[in-house]
Structure formats: C-alpha cells, structure tokens
Amino acid sequence: MRALTRRKFLRTSILGSLAAPWLGPGAAFAQDESAGSAAGFHEGVSNDEILLGTSAAFSGPSRGLGIELYRGAQACFTRVNEQGGVGGRRIALRLYDDGYQPVPSVQNTMELLIEDQVFALFGYVGTPTVTRVLPILKKFQEENVYMFFPFTGAQPQREPPYGEFAFNLRASYREETAGLVENFLRIGRRRIAVFYQADAYGRSGWAGVREALGARGGQIVGEATYTRGAAYGRSMGEQVEILRNAGPDAVICIGAYGACAAFLRDAIDLGLEVPVANLSFVGSENLLQIIADSVDDSERYTRYLVNSQVVPSYEDESIPVVREYAELMDRYRPEVPESLRQPDYVPFDRSFVSLEGFVNAKMLVEILSRMGDSPSRARLEQAVFTVRDYDLGIGEMVSFSEQRRQGMQRLYYTVVDQGRFVPLDDWRARFG
Amino acid sequence: MKLNMNVQKLFRRPLFGIFLLFGIIAVSTSWVCIATVDSQLSEEYESNSRGIAQTIADASVDIILNRDLSALQSLIDQFLEIQGISYIYIVNEDGEFLAHTFVPGIPGEILASDPADTGTVERVLSGADNYVEVGSPILAGVAGSVHIGMDKSVITLKIQQAVGRQMYLISSIFLVGIIAAIMLMNLAARPVEHLLTYAVQLARAEREGEPAPGALLERDDEAGQLARLLLYFSRVADPEKAGALARPEAS
User: Fold this and answer.
1) Which residues in chain A have Cβ-Cβ distances shorter than 8 Å to B60?
2) Å from A244 to nearest chain B CA?
3) Domain with B30 in it: what CATH number?
C-alpha cells in the first residue's frame, strides 16, 4: 500500500484542472466543521480521527436525499464518537455538495482523494454521479480507495469493471424493479409502462423493468422521460399523455421526488388512474410532503401510489435497528453543517432515507472496528470480507465476499394510508 | 441653394451608381459567405458527428454485450454536452431502443424510421426543428447502431453571426465610402460652382454695362478656359464689344 506519489499527485492534478472548466456554479463545496484538516493525515487516518469523504446532493431539487442520508449516518457516527470512536478514533465526514450533478461530483471526488486524502468514500447519492466517479476509483486502485454504500441501486458499481471498487448494502434497482413487476403481474396488471429520468439512473431502472418483463414474456408498453433536476412545478402533462396513449395497467417511475410527485399529480388530473410505483431512491417522505402541501385532496393523489423500499418501515420499532435509529435521531436531531444548510428545507424527524443512512453508517462502523487499532486502506477490503452472516438488527443477515459485494437483498413495499407510508401486505386488495 | 441643388443633380447618377455597386458587393459577398459557411460547417459538423458516432459505437460493444445499460446511457450523456449535438440514440439489431436522450419521449418520426440506416438523414422533429442525423453501425451492424442528431439551428446561428459580421464591415466601408465620395464630388464641383458664379456676374455686368469681372480669367485650368470662352461668347453676342474684341486680335 502506498500513499499518493508526487508524480501521481501531479497527474491527477492535471486531470482535475482539465475537468475544472466543466464545473458549473453549483459546484461550491463546504466542509463539515468537525472534520480535521488534511495535514497530519495518512490515508485519511490520524491518531484520533478517521476521515471519510462524501459528495452528495445538498442543494437543488433532490437535496432532500443527500440531507436525509447524511442525517441518518450522522446520528450513528455521533453516538460512536461519544463512546470513544472506533479504536479510539472519532469518525469525521468531509462533505461536498454536487447538487446531484455528475461533473461537480467528479471534481469533488478528486478533491476528496487528492487534497483531503480521505480514508474512504461514503454516502454518495445517485446513479449519474456515482457512475462517473467509478472510473476515478479504478484510477486510484493502487491506493485502495473504496466507495461504501452509495445511495443508488444501479448495476455499474455492482459488476465489472468497477464493481470491485465499491461495496453496496442496499438491494439493487434490478431487484426492486423485478419485485414490482412480479407483484403487478401477479395481480393481473400486465401492461406496464415506465416513466423515468433521462440519465443513467432512469436507464438502470428501465433496464430492470425490461429485463423482468422479458423474463416473463412481456415488454414495456410505453415509456416517457423527464430531464434530471425537474422540480415539482414542472408540468408532466406530455409524459402522462404519452403513457396514457399506451394504455398501461401500471406505471413504474424511476425518478426523484420532485418530478415523480409532478407526474403523479398530472396523471391523476388527466385521468390516468392506475397504480404508480416508485423505487426507493425517490425519497418517499419528500414526495408525500410535496403532494400534501400542494393539493387539497392528497388522499385522491396518493391512493394509487406504491413505493418499494430497501429498509423496513421506520415506524416498526419491533425491529432493533429501527428502535436504535429512532432513539438516536430523537436524541441528536442531526443537521447538516451550517455552510450546507438550506434555509427553506425542513428535515424529517424520521424517513426511509435517513434510516438507510443510519444502517449504512452502522455497517461501516462495524467494518472499521474489525481492523482493530491500525486501520489502513490496504486492509479495508479484507475487513469487509470478514462480515459473514452479521446481524445488523434489521431482520436480515449481512454478508460480504469477493463475489458478493451487496450486503442485503430484502425489499419492502409501502403505500400511503392516512398521510403516512405503511407496509403493503395485500397487493390484490389494494390494486387488484 | 439653387447652386447646391444643381450640383447634387449633376452627381445624382454617380451617387446612385455607388449605392448600386455597394449593394451588389454586399449581396454577392453575403451570398458567397452563406454558401461557404453553410457548406463548411455542415461538412464539419457531419464529419465530427460521424466520428463521435463511431467512437460511441466502438465503446458500446463491450457495454451492450457485458454490462448494464445504465453505463451505455452514461456514455451517451457525456457526448450530449458537445455543442451542436441534440440527441443520441442506440438501437440493437432488432431495432429496439437501448439508450436515448429524448425528453419527453422518442419522437414518432424516429420510431417510424429505419434504425438500420446509418446514412445522413435530414429530419424535422416536433414539426419545426431541423436536424441532420448521422449513424454508425455497432459491430458492423450485427449489434445495432448509434445515431446522432445535430441541430441545424446551430449552423444557421453561426451563418447569421458570420453574415452579420460581414454586413457590419461592409456597412462601415459603405458609410466611409459615401462620405468620401460626397467630399470628392464637392471638390470636383467647386470649379463648376466658381464658373457658374462667374457666368452670373458676367451676365449682370453685361446688363448693367459694367466691366467684366476678372476672376477666373487668369486660371490656366478648365475653369479659366471656360471663363474666357464665356467672356468671348458674351462679346460675340454684342457687336460693339465684338469689334473691340476683334480689333486687338486683328492688330
């Protein structure tokens, strides 16, 4: 294991400067005040700190995802730090805002690896961002830089040539879409259309639906797209019209909460009253809140909504990890650092996204603790592989190996009842 | 005032000629400019796009055969950042769309077209926007094809910019030329003005029996010669003065 050599530093600096002209104004970043400076760090580890790096959406139409994921993780890290950290080292996060845009995400990652020299990347948000960052990890493979538990279920970080540089905890989009397709087919809804974000994330979900339907002799009956970053105020009437002409029995949405809420609104308004499913990435609470805040009869608009989740309901405190999450979220009420705070964003007390952030952080802490008193990037991968049938308290044993870089597979389906998401037990009764 | 009018009448035709000449120059050079820029830019855009399509086609083989289609989408999204490229789509050998950049959906014109055709095609999408589409086969077409659409309005905008700059230059030259022409014409008209003034003064002197004005008679240019000729003719018209005029010559 080697640190960055001068030659490599120069090489990567040149790469960074080449990327710089492509940077948009939204690439401004901020640091977690709790994070120490890069000075004195070796591979992101000092005598009293382990520094992790995050680039995520803390601004823009999808900011709720980055903010809530961070808040959940921070609840876990705060407790760990209060108890003395991992091997006597507190865990710190260096945060950068990429606004859910690929180019700032690439630049932030270069900054994290070259300037900040973080120990590992953690808590990234989004497929279009992560897919552009993965080649950087391959470039830095001699430095043993790994990405942990990105908030995306896409395939590129799960398969060659970049799968070996990332570890995933959540189920994949392929699994989520297959589950939705299977359930719709089971209740006789065979004509499935797709509404998706016109980028790698949308394509990943689209490919999952296509594959799941293809395996059962079907095909997508209609598809419509929207541009990444579309907010709730945008009309999705054209998209609804395209899908309505295809005559679907159900629509699977692969998008973020703003656009998916707009689609749901326009679908109901234009008479497309069929089940509308969303993937876990959508940000369920953000979506529900937008709908509730903007329409009078929100029940009418959410009646056909079904969201798949990769973590259980945050209200089910019979599950140990949910109980722990709820207690720590109430105790710490974590917030993003002042410099990244959005004055008009009101965080949720609890959410699926922050629960996922909490579970991710808990798993990472376990992995770091397995390296004992001398954590190093070189031993990180082997430490992950020692996780076999580990009980995270979520009701599913977690395992990793060279062939298995995704810790969990379980999916949960939720619908809206009385203004909140509840587990969906009977598909036929709800949508049959 | 009448004098100036006469001079302007004198040079009205040359001025009109100058205007006409500049007009012909402006129109002809603009036409040549439009044709050249259009031709060169279209060729350049088409050539570059074909090169990009080939690059994507080469890079797509491994992704289509071995990897998730999100990687393919990520690949084409990066090329969409290049100026002039409006849309990209990739179809497999069965004509199924594997990745594309259309919002809110794939246009009917493209759905109705032959996806195996990788030649240059002009398209009008959404009933108004003009595009030039080029294609490139993937694995000689057995794995599908890549298609890239370029917005022709970008070329039109560049033509407008080039012609605008040229018109600005020609207009500036035209303005300077007109000012210079008026100055030169005024310079050329001055002897005629002097001659006209002399003729009026001579006529007044003849009528009132005063001695003929001496101005201009000493000049050795055409104005002086014409002044002397006017003086001669005025005396030829008056037999008394004609005799006086003839006598010294006879002696």
Assistant:
1) none
2) 13
3) 3.30.450.20
Q: pLDDT, tens digit, for every residue of A365-405?
A: 999 999 998 999 999 999 999 999 999 999 999 999 999 99
Q: Do A203 and B73 touch (CB under 8 A)?
A: yes
Residues B35 and B168: beta-carbon distance below 8 Å: no
User: CB–CB of B104 and A155 under 8 A?
Assistant: no
Question: Searching chain A, which residue's CA lies closest to the CA of residue B66?
Answer: A160
pLDDT, position B2: 45
pLDDT of residue A35: 45
* CB pairs A-B closer than 8 Å: 69
Q: Residue A185: CB partners within 8 Å, gap ≥ 6?
A: A216, A218
Alpha-carbon gap: A241 to the closest alpha carbon of chain B (Å) = 10
Distance, first Cα to last Cα, chain A = 57
Question: Closest Cα partner for A285 from A312, A313, A257?
Answer: A257
Q: Are A366 and A387 in contact (CB under 8 A)?
A: yes
pLDDT tens string A196-243: 999 999 999 999 999 999 999 999 999 999 999 999 999 999 999 999
Please give the Cα distance from A340 to A278 (Å, whole number): 28
Q: Is residue B4 part of a domain?
A: no
Q: Which residues pair with A252 in a beta bridge?
A: A194, A277
Among B152, B174, B191, the domain boundary falls at B152
When CB atoms are compared, the residue of B67, B71, B103 closest to A226 is B103
Measure CB to CB from residue B70 to each of A160, A200, A224 and give the nearest one. Answer: A200
ipTM of model: 0.83
Q: Considering only CB atoms, which chain B residues are within 8 Å of A157?
A: none
pLDDT (mean) for B158-164: 83
Same domain, B50 and B170: no
**Do A292 and A325 fall into the same domain?**
no
- Mean pLDDT along residues A177-193: 97
Query: Is residue B143, in this structure, part of any structural domain at all?
Result: yes
**Residues B74, A128: C-beta atoms closer than 8 Å:** yes
Domain span at A275: 173-309+412-431
Give how many domains chain A has, as a whole number. 2
The verdict on a CB contact (< 8 Å) between A200 and B81 is: no
Of A246, A284, A293, give the one whose Cα is nearest residue A267: A246
Which residues of B fall below an 8 Å CB-CB distance to A?
66-74, 77, 81, 99, 101-106
Are B148 and B165 in a shared domain? no
The backbone torsions φ and ψ at residue A119, rounded to the nearest 5 degrees and listed phi first, read -70, -40
